[in-house]
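User: Could you check the structure of this?
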Amino acid sequence: MGSGLPHPPRIITMLQLVDVLPNLQGNGGATMARAKIQRHENTGGVTVFYDGACPSCVRDRAQYEKLLGSKGADIRWFDITGQEALLREIGIDPHKALTELHVQDERHQVLSEMDAYILLLKKVPLLKPLAWLIGLPLIRPVLAKVYHGMVTNRLRRSGRL
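Assistant: Sure, the predicted structure tokens are below.
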């Protein structure tokens, strides 16, 4: 190297920087940094804000990823556990994030509850008819009420509500 430098300068991408952050800040800092980077450098995908402390939510995520297959690369998953400040920063009430599914779409619009589920179901060809069905005016409010009851019971049983 004629420049006298022992190594050429290295350009570090934002995602590479996030990979070294756990060593610099601990896991909490890296998680927050990763979310901020995903929010600011979103390449047009969907971000799902899910409760990673909920075993059934984690199973649902795994099942959804399995159904999506290779199309899942456009879906980012963000565990809301312990991320209250960041949620507020992006306009999501932390309590609502715990009690309702939230999704940020390709246009950076945050959808919640049944709108969020409909968006996710439409991403899986096999589930598109279900997305249409749960969007029907008679089914949607009933399903929303059942969903809220199930979530409230789950959070009470786990001592988180």
